[in-house]
Write a structure and sequence with these properties.
By secondary structure, the chain is mostly helical. It has helices spanning about 1-10, 15-20, 25-40, 45-70, 75-100, 105-125.
Length: about 130
């Protein structure tokens, strides 16, 4: 009982804080737009990075739903690894295509994606392992 009372004290603020932490990369993406505008960076770089980031996050969410429903550890590992590699290739190819068309926009896009990944990965490390896995 004593351990349950300590956890309940943190519960009211935990869901909101956890939701913010889970979506901190999306907050960073939104905050990057004014930076791009003020700095005069190519908006095609921002648009490409934003589109790629949102698409890969949607793919990740779909994979996480399938992982949560899978009873097979082998299938889970395959989905997580395959999804991570596929999402990385998606981002790399999109930024490469943009960079070949417009070097400045490609550079801006890759730097934004790297910043978003850094925020996302750091937030994931802070969150720790999901419960039940």
């Amino acid at each position: 009982m004593a351990s349950g009372s300590g956890a309940s004290a943190a519960e009211p603020s935990a869901p909101g804080a956890l939701r913010l932490l889970r979506n901190l990369d999306l907050v960073a993406l939104a905050l990057a737009l004014p930076i791009f505008l003020v700095a005069g960076l190519p908006l095609t770089g921002y648009a490409t990075a934003a589109a790629v980031w949102l698409v890969q996050r949607a793919i990740q969410a779909a994979i996480e739903r399938r992982v949560g429903a899978s009873p097979s550890p082998r299938a889970v590992v395959g989905m997580v690894a395959g999804g991570a590699i596929g999402r990385a290739w998606l981002a790399a190819l999109a930024v490469l295509a943009l960079g070949l068309a417009d070097e400045q926009a490609g550079l801006a896009a890759v730097l934004l994606i790297l910043a978003l990944f850094t925020v996302y990965f750091t937030a994931k490390l802070i969150q720790g392992a999901p419960a039940g896995r």
